[in-house]
Recover the amino acids of this structure.
């Protein structure tokens, strides 16, 4: 019996990630939930976080575990342990699989899934249909007492889903003290708390951008000091969606330098590079002098193997070409 962990990964739109096995595997071109074998001495949670980082270069938040599925393939028996997870990453970097798809729930069972994954999908869809939404907090509009702050930190540490993050966003709207604590936790040294707090801030921005705009300068100036790449990704996502004119123009240079460094780095995650490109494009609209440097940097990236970055880069290059054309026309 082989113990295997798999991840049902949901994105911002509640779509679920499936990956396609390679042609040379024992189940060629079949679709599955990503994951892998649990190593000796490793927990299922540790395994799935490691496997998703190794196979897809993605960071995930484990929301909860589903019941195990045992399936006999004839040549092997598999004990498949599924974890329901959320992510902010949209662009998996494939290292072992042929392809990936983000599917709506009703599309999952239409895919050519492995037999064990079909059973997992059915369990997930059944559980999802009856899972109640939990409100994580009942805090009022006042400064937090030590006990309330302790409760807030515990709730963040145990946050189970994107829906709960959205409830935190609603709580931050009602109580600015919660918003201040989320900002504080995001730049702290506790990685798990920092990621979940910054992830929640991105949900605050989605629903109530006016709450985040007064803190754009803080977010920009924090980028170079963050200990968590997950927090960096959340902050860059906010900035990629924001009106950058609402940040102090003196910080635009700081932001541009950070994003160019991220694009040129061989260690930046795919999502970090994607958000950095979008931010630099927005800055190029304000400062046309950035067009050439951004175009050159994106062209340099076209030799990379990350299909998502290449595709995003081509879109930005077309937009930059249009800007250049408009500038030439206005000067004639």
């Amino acid at each position: 019996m082989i113990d295997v962990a798999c991840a049902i990964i949901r994105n911002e739109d509640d779509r679920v990630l499936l990956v396609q096995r390679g042609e040379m595997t024992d189940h060629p071109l079949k679709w599955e939930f990503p994951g892998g074998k649990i190593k000796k001495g490793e927990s299922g949670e540790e395994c799935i976080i490691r496997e998703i980082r190794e196979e897809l270069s993605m960071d995930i938040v484990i929301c909860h575990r589903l019941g195990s599925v045992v399936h006999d393939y004839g040549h092997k028996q598999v004990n498949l342990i599924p974890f329901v997870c959320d992510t902010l990453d949209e662009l998996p970097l494939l290292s072992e699989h042929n392809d990936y798809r983000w599917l709506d729930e009703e599309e999952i069972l239409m895919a050519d899934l492995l037999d064990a994954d079909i059973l997992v999908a059915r369990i997930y869809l059944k559980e999802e249909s009856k899972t109640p939404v939990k409100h994580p907090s009942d805090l009022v509009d006042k400064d937090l007492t030590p006990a309330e702050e302790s409760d807030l930190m515990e709730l963040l540490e145990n946050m189970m889903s994107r829906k709960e993050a959205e409830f935190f966003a609603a709580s931050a709207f009602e109580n600015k003290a919660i918003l201040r604590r989320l900002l504080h936790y995001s730049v702290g040294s506790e990685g798990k708390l920092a990621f979940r707090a910054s992830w929640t801030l991105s949900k605050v921005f989605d629903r109530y951008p006016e709450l985040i705009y007064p803190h754009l300068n803080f977010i920009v100036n924090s980028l170079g000091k963050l200990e968590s790449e997950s927090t960096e990704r959340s902050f860059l996502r906010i900035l990629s969606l924001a009106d950058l004119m609402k940040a102090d123009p003196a910080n635009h240079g700081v932001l541009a330098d950070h994003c160019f460094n991220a694009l040129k780095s061989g260690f930046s995650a795919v999502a970090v590079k994607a958000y950095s490109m979008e931010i630099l494009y927005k800055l190029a609209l304000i400062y046309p002098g950035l067009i050439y440097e951004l175009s050159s940097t994106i062209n340099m990236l076209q030799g990379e193997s990350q299909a998502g970055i290449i595709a995003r880069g081509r879109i930005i290059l077309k937009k930059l070409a249009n800007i250049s054309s408009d500038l030439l026309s206005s000067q004639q």
